[in-house]
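Appendix B, Record 12. Input sequence as logged:
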Amino acid sequence: MRILGLDYGSVTVGVAVSDPLGLTAQAVETIVRHRESKLRQTLARIEEICREYQVEKIVVGLPLNMNDGPGERAEKATKFGELVHRRTGLPVIMWDERLTTVAADEILDEMNVRGRHNRKAVIDQIAAGIILQEWLDNCGGEETTETDRG
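Logged structural output:
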């Protein structure tokens, strides 16, 4: 069973997918759109990826505030998760993604990836991989239906 991980941003969506056993996450791509409100092509691409990888479940990063409360970005991510569910018909799990972009940035530092353009091209998909890997490590074998961070 493959699981898709998504890191939703205002103009990009990082995408990662698990291996068939659901043990590890691999970065796949970054979907870019020109305006935040233009999601039709983004959702179509996510649907294609789900078919290509035979995805059975989707984990979407939920950017909670450091005080555990949802802010504007978390509300937008939740609405995006609902749209993904409607488009694909697959279960969507919202997963606390706090500090995943910071962790992705540190990974790029360790890999000596320099230059804003080089980093921007991959940081969202690395963050999606971190979100998905955290979910796999904490809940991968269990059924999860609500936002939780093991």
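Strands lie at 2-8, 12-18, 25-32, 55-62, 92-96.
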